[in-house]
Amino acid sequence: MPVEGTNHSVVSEFVFVGLTNSWDMQVLLFVFSSMFYVASMTGNSLIIFTVASDPHLHSPMFFLLANLSFIDLGVSCVTCPKMIYDLFRKYKVISFKGCVTQIFFIHVIGGVEMVLLIGMAYDRYVAICKPLHYLTIMNAKMCIFLLVAAWVAGLMHSLVQFVFVVNLPFCGPNVLDSFYCDLPRFIRLACIDTNQLELMVSANSGFISVGSFFILVISYVVILVTLQKHSSIGSSKALSTLSAHISVVVLFFGPLIFFYTWPSPSTHLDKFLAIFDAVVTPFLNPVIYTLRNQEMKTAMKRVCRQLVRHGRIS
């Protein structure tokens, strides 16, 4: 359990083992990570800008999508820049405060994204199962409520764990076999018995992840059953949108559930999934939604044309 009062740590910084010592792999990872980082930042920023500027997209579904893109920007910013910067550094170091801050924001963002995905599933449920009441149920107040609930849940989820780990004593070693501050590995470095704390953290994150995933699975099963009863152009469009949602859910929850429920994960597999989660998933989310949504594609083309036109005028 955490130490009462002040932090008695003698460790002021942590050293990352990183991803690889091979020069060729470092170059490959640098190109791969940089490309996906820039693409995800550009794609998600474009979605937010398009939804905000195009009146045709001022609907609950796109409001939630824009907020998901905002969260994906956060996912990219929390771990990617540091990872890319460290690739060619021999001594990959992060301060104690920097490590704790990174852990805090990783869990805030993760918690917010879980609730947002549930909110997006609820939006699709109402649109498909109760179309006549959609505008009444998914009004502006409901959208704001879902957004506030997501941030409150994310902050609460992170603070619960933060309170327990912030005052842990660290007296060495200070080496993390990762490229970012991973909470389970961080806890294991404390110089007290942390078995109960590790169990609490795994139970907290694992329960929330698995619970949210099952809520989403049940909601999508209900929606798919409802869609099966209808065979029309409208239901085909709804199925296309729904398949995009399901793809994003699987991409987000797959690595997350593995991290917190697998008893003894392989270090290499763990790192691969962490890279995928931090670098690839934030890029795939905007790609999936734009490719599967004709309204978004049309709106993006409109916005791009306007930006080009303004660029020429100026």
Structure summary:
With 314 residues, the chain is mainly α. The protein contains ten helices and three strands; from the N terminus they run E-H-H-E-H-H-H-E-H-H-H-H-H. It has a three-stranded mixed β-sheet.
Care to describe what's here?
Helices cover 75% and strands 3% of the residues. By secondary structure, the protein is an all-alpha fold. Strands 2-1-3 form a three-stranded mixed sheet. α2 runs antiparallel to α3 (96-129) and α3 (96-129) packs antiparallel against α5. It is globular. The model is unreliable at 1-7 (pLDDT under 50).
For this entry, give a set of tags:
mainly alpha, 3-stranded mixed beta sheet, 10 helices
Radius of gyration of CA atoms, rounded to a whole number = 21 Å
What's the overall average pLDDT, rounded? 82
Given as residue ranges, the uncertain stretches (5+ residues, pLDDT < 50) are 1-7
The termini sit apart by: 61 Å
Report the sheet with the most strands, covering strand number, pairing sense and barrel closure: 3 strands, mixed
Task: Please give the number of β-strands.
Answer: 3
Strand content: under 5%
- From the helix content, strand content and strand pairing, which structural class follows? mainly alpha
Strand order within the widest beta sheet: 2-1-3
Order of helices and strands: EHHEHHHEHHHHH
Fraction of helical residues:
over 70%
User: Count the helices. How many?
Assistant: 10
Task: Tell me, briefly, the overall form.
Answer: globular
